[in-house]
Structure formats: structure tokens, C-alpha cells
Design goal:
The chain has about 625 residues and is mainly β. Helix content is about 5%, strand content about 35%.
Length: about 625
């Protein structure tokens, strides 16, 4: 999807000022061209520089006064905000200006031309119940090197309120903290036009959005750190959202019909950290059809992560709701907590018939251009150490995923090459009403559960497909099967129905593979190696035996050369592998049982036989 920066083509930044540190690959060619043009063109003769502060060289004693003067001047004006004043009781409104403003803090005084730490502090504490900065109208605004706190808005964003368009807002090297607002405690970006093409917000540089609160507690959305509606938001550079809270949805980010691209290295890789939502989406909440969210690793050495977030109800890390689409590329979702779907919840039960989708994969196929694969393959594309629990600490459903869809709706999740490990709860993946989950090339290990791992036994369309995956070394309910399923499965024109397991290893001594009423359809269970096939009828395609992992105790579930799972199944090159390697590598020294396809999440490779990469 190509995004433009409304208004940027006709403006230039002031000489010597650090325009936000943008990773060019993160934007489309059109946007790159606009930003380069904006940063290299000489300043127009009509542009002016105003200096706010006290002492020699200062032009204004207040930020608002400088804004009002800039509104009457053509060109992209620069307002330098020095540290010579204490800026309290602030509610700065940009509305009449049409040419654009660049706010820059970090100047010691009005005669200094260099930016130094600390950022200039601007606070709304003690002032009106309003945002510290309210950016209205159509002016393009750059904000750099500011500390923004103490905002208290009863209608929108507490720190920065962005309203309307077409325009672009660029926020860089900001510390936005301890603000509160009804929508978007730290930042709100809202447009009335029902599209994402007219309001663009770039959050870049070393920006921290921390300790902000959204007070909305009704049916509407929240967004403790950021709320966006009918807009496009790009989060990049070193930006992170830490310790924000929402009385409703989206402790870190709430997106309502908003396209969000998150490609930041964050705080040591953590981008959404320790945020809290009283209802759903502790880290991220995305809802409605224009909410297309991409979350990806931008630095191979610092995997992007959603860490330590909490939801009072569903989706501790991420919640996708009602027609939203969330894609996670080679990143990590770990240590999150919720009552259902501690890692991720996908729900579609409201409004007109729609489809809500979640994708997590280890490749950058389909990702934004700035997405990169992790340098250490096993370190990324993981759903790890999440906990589904109630307020008393008791185990609840969906330690990794919770999927729910009503009649005429669809909720689907695809985990491709994903490692699902160390999660705790009643079951690993929970279905409520309808839902579709696919595991392809996944490794499921080391999870601790009180019931079966997968429960698809409900009366509705609960569809689970496990292909080319390894399930081993999990601890769960005594006597419980790996899968508790309905006696229904088929491949129909609309896709898979019921429970299907293909080309996989299930090594869970003491637990049967599957339990269901009646006789299973063997067409839905082919090329399996397990410790106990449960109620599956005898078949030459499936076997019982030790898969001979390299070192399961150390978390290495690759296959030893003596493994019976090597060169076992009819080749299906479309299946994924955990390490993103090629799927079918035929070893000429090993007899092909039915074909050259190895069972489980890994394809044998002599380089990795003795250990991890």
C-alpha cells in the first residue's frame, strides 16, 4: 500500500535542524521522494525562525504567541523552544497555520544554534482540561526534542491531539509521559474522513511514550499510549510505548480503522512493553476494516517484541477484532497476561459479516520493505511465556491464542514457522464458537497446561490444521489428549473443516494424539509419527516411534540422522520449516518411506545435525 505525506512536497526544513531520523526503506518510493525533497530544498525566503524564551535573541515569551505569529507568515516556520523558561499550564493550539510549523526543543537559550540534552519540557499541568499540543487544521507539523507531560483532556489525546487533514505530522525524539486523555493518553490522531490516506503520523527517532492513561471506559476505544482513527501511523526509529494504561481497550495502542506500521527497534527490541488494558488488547488493540497492522523486526540484532502487557479480559499482547488484520513478521510476543488469549486474541462477533485475521511468520514475505529477518533464527518468531489466568491466578483458556467468531463471521490465525513455548494456562489454543487456526512448520514445546493442548470439541465450526509441525515436551492435564476434537473433518471448497494433522511429529509420552467420539476420517490424519495415535484407525501412513531429536532437553528438536521421521512423507514443498530453510531435502543415503519430506518442523540438514545454528 503506497502512502503519501500530504503537504510535504511544498515545504522544506530549516537548515541545520535534525529532521526525524527516518529509515528510508520503511517507506514507499513515493514517500521517500517527498521526504528527500522536503529535507534538501533550500528554505524559502518567506519561512521564518522564531525563538521562544527569556533573554537575548528571543522573539517570543510564549509558545502560543510564536504559533500565532507563524500563522500569518507563509512558508514552513521554525519555532525554537529554549530551556530558559518553565512551560507550565500549556494548551498550544495550531489551527490557522496552513504552511507548516517545525517545533524544536533542546536549545539552551535563544542565541544558541546547537541542540543539546535535556529536551525542552512543556507541561499542561495546572492548565485547562486539554492536550498540551492540539494540532488542528491542515498544517504539516514537525516536533523534535521535546518532553511533553501533564496533559489532561476530557475529549481526545492528553499529550498531543492531532485532528483532521489532509496533513502529515512528524514526531521525533520526544518524551511523552504522564498525560491522560479520553482517547489516546499520550497521542490521539483522528480524522473524520473514512480512509487512511489523508492523515499520516510518523513517530520516529528515540521517542518514548510512557506512563500515559486513556480514561474512556465505555464501549468506545481507548489507547493508553496512542489512539488512531481514520489515519496511517508509522512507528520507527527507536520508539517504544512503555507502562501506558487504558480503562478500556488498547493499553499501548488502540487502532480504530487505522493503518499502523510498527518497525521500531524500541527499547532493546521491546516496542510495546508493560502496558495495561482493563478490557482487551494489553499491548495492541486493532478493530474495523481499515485497521491493517504490520509489526516487524527492523534490526536483525534486536528482534521487535511485545513484552509484559496485561489485559483484564482478552488479548494480553495483541487483540484483533471485527475485520482487523494484524501481521507479525519475525518478532516476539512474550510474558503477556490475560484471562483469554494471553499472547493473542482474534475475535469477530460484532457488526456486519466480516473476517478478522492474524498472521505470524518467520519470513518477510508480504512485509513492509524495512522488515528484516533476525540474525539468530531460533530467537525470533516466538510466542513465549505468556500466561492465561484469572484474577486469582487460576489457569484459563488460550495461553497462546484465543479465537472466537459468531455466525456469519470469521476469525482466523496462521502461525507459520512459529515457536510456541513456555506458555501457561488451561489450554494452548482455545476456540469459542467458530474459528480457524493453522500451524505450518511450527514448533510447540515446553508449555504447561491443565487441560488438553487443543480443544476443538465444541459444536461449532472450530477448525484446526496442523501441518509439518513438531509438538513435544509439553506438560498438560493427566490423561488428556493432545487434541480433543469433534468427529467431523473434511476438505471443502471453502477450506478445511474440523481437525486435520499432516506430516507432523507429536511426541508426548503418556498422552494420546487425539480423542473424539466415533471413528476419525483417516484422510484428515496422514504421515504422522507419534507416541500414541489415540483413536486413529491403523494406517500404513502413520507410525508410532521415538523421533530421535538432537537434544530435546536443551530445546533442540531437530532430527538426528537415525530418526525414522527423515524422508518419510510425500513431498509438500509448500510447507514451511521452523528455520525458514527449504522444505524438501532428499538424503540419497536414507530410504524414502513414502517420499522425501521430513516430518515435523525441521528438514534435516547436515550442517545442523549436532546443534543449533
Amino acid at each position: 500500500m503506497s502512502r503519501s505525506f500530504p503537504g510535504l512536497a511544498s515545504v522544506s526544513s530549516s537548515a541545520g535542524v535534525r529532521i526525524p531520523r527516518i529509515e528510508w526503506a520503511q517507506l514507499t518510493c513515493r514517500v521517500v521522494a517527498l521526504l528527500v525533497l522536503a529535507s534538501v530544498l533550500p528554505a524559502t525566503t518567506l519561512a521564518a525562525t522564531y525563538r521562544v524564551g527569556s533573554g537575548g535573541g528571543c522573539t517570543h515569551a510564549s509558545i502560543q504567541a510564536a504559533v500565532n505569529t507563524a500563522a500569518g507568515n507563509a512558508g514552513l516556520d521554525t519555532i525554537r523552544i529554549t530551556r530558559t523558561l518553565a512551560y507550565g499550564n500549556q494548551n498550544i493550539v495550531v489551527e490557522a497555520d496552513t504552511a507548516g510549523i517545525e517545533f524544536i526543543g533542546g536549545y539552551a537559550d535563544c542565541q544558541t544554534n546547537s541542540i543539546t540534552l535535556p529536551n525542552t519540557a512543556v507541561s499542561g499541568a495546572g492548565g485547562a482540561a486539554a492536550a498540551v499540543f492540539s494540532l488542528r487544521g491542515i498544517a504539516t507539523v514537525f516536533m523534535n526534542n521535546l518532553e511533553i507531560s501533564g496533559g489532561d483532556s476530557t475529549s481526545a489525546g492528553g499529550g498531543i491531539e492531532i485532528v483532521g487533514g489532509p496533513k502529515s505530522i512528524v514526531l521525533s525524539n520526544l518524551f511523552i509521559h504522564n498525560n491522560q486523555g479520553r482517547y489516546g493518553g499520550g497521542i490521539s490522531a483522528r480524522h473524520s474522513a473514512p480512509n487512511t490516506n489523508e492523515l499520516f503520523v510518523l513517530i520516529d527517532g528515540d521517542t518514548a511514550i510512557s506512563g500515559n492513561t486513556s480514561t474512556e471506559s465505555g464501549f468506545n476505544f481507548g489507547g493508553g499510549g496512542l489512539y488512531c482513527e481514520n489515519a496511517s501511523v508509522l512507528v520507527s526509529g527507536g520508539t517504544y510505548l512503555l507502562g501506558n494504561s487504558s480503562a478500556n481497550y488498547g493499553g499501548g495502542i488502540a487502532a480504530s480503522g487505522c493503518a499502523v506500521e510498527i518497525g521500531s527497534v524500541g527499547l532493546l527490541g521491546g516496542v510495546l512493553l508493560n502496558n495495561y488494558a482493563a478490557r482487551d488488547g494489553g499491548g495492541l488493540y486493532a478493530s474495523l476494516s481499515r485497521s491493517i497492522v504490520s509489526f516487524y523486526t527492523a534490526d536483525p540484532e534486536q528482534p521487535a517484541a511485545v513484552i509484559g502487557n496485561t489485559a483484564g479480559e482478552d488479548g494480553g499482547g495483541i487483540m484483533a477484532f471485527t475485520n482487523a488484520q494484524v501481521s507479525v513478521y519475525d518478532a516476539i510476543i512474550r510474558d503477556n497476561v490475560a484471562q483469554r488469549g494471553a499472547g493473542v486474541a482474534i475475535e469477530d462477533v460484532d457488526g456486519t459479516p466480516s473476517v478478522t485475521r492474524f498472521l505470524m511468520q518467520g519470513t518477510t514475505l508480504g512485509a513492509p520493505g524495512a522488515a528484516r529477518n533476525c540474525a539468530r533464527r531460533e530467537a525470533c518468531n516466538r510466542i513465549s511465556d505468556n500466561s492465561a489466568q484469572n484474577g486469582s491466578g487460576g489457569a484459563t483458556p488460550g495461553a497462546a491464542l484465543f479465537v472466537r467468531a459468531g455466525n456469519d463471521f470469521a476469525a482466523s490465525a496462521i502461525l507459520r514457522s512459529t515457536r510456541v513455548e513456555g506458555n501457561e494456562g488451561q489450554n494452548l489454543i482455545d476456540f469459542d464458537l467458530d474459528g480457524d487456526v493453522s500451524l505450518d512448520g511450527a514448533l510447540v514445546e515446553g508449555n504447561t497446561l491443565t487441560g488438553p493442548m487443543f480443544d476443538t470439541s465444541g459444536p461449532n465450526a472450530e477448525n484446526l490444521v496442523i501441518a509439518a509441525s513438531t509438538i513435544a515436551a509439553n506438560v498438560f492435564g493427566a490423561g488428556q489428549p493432545v487434541i480433543n476434537a469433534r468427529n467431523v473433518c473434511a476438505i471443502e471448497s471453502g477450506g478445511y473443516r474440523g481437525t486435520h494433522v499432516y506430516r507432523s511429529i507429536i511426541w508426548q509420552p503418556g498422552h494420546a494424539l487425539i480423542a473424539m467420539g466415533g471413528t476419525p476420517n483417516l484422510n484428515c490424519f496422514q504421515y504422522l509419527l507419534a507416541n500414541d495415535l489415540g483413536v486413529l484407525p491403523a494406517s500404513t501412513l502413520n507410525g508410532v516411534g521415538d523421533p530421535l531429536f538432537v537434544n530435546a532437553a536443551a530445546g533442540n528438536f531437530r532430527l538426528r540422522l537415525a530418526s525414522p521421521a527423515i524422508d518419510y512423507a510425500v513431498a509438500q514443498a509448500a510447507n514451511s520449516t521452523r528455520d525458514i530453510g527449504p522444505r524438501v531435502l532428499d538424503d540419497p543415503t536414507i530410504f524414502n518411506e513414502f517420499g522425501a519430506h521430513d516430518l515435523g518442523a525441521y528438514e534435516i540438514d547436515q550442517i545442523f545435525v549436532d546443534g543449533f545454528e
